[in-house]
Specification:
This protein is mainly alpha-helical and about 60 residues long. About 80% of the residues lie in helices and about 0% in strands. The termini are far apart.
Length: about 60
């Protein structure tokens, strides 16, 4: 578990650096995808899914 947590933290740091850097290249997208797969395997995944679903529901209910 310690290895997967350290990989998760490394990928998270890389994703933040890539997003703050301005341009999202193919290599950056691969890192973000790997971060997503690592997050999906953690115990935080159900909470993250619920939060994203709630946010999507709020956004879809807005009428400009």
């Amino acid at each position: 578990m310690a290895i997967s947590i350290s990989v998760l933290v490394l990928l998270l740091i890389l994703a933040v650096v890539f997003v703050r850097g301005g341009g999202l290249k193919v290599s950056h997208a691969v890192v973000c995808t790997l971060l997503g797969f690592c997050l999906a395997g953690t115990s935080f995944a159900p909470t993250l899914h619920s939060g994203l679903a709630a946010t999507a529901g709020i956004v879809s209910s807005l009428h400009p």
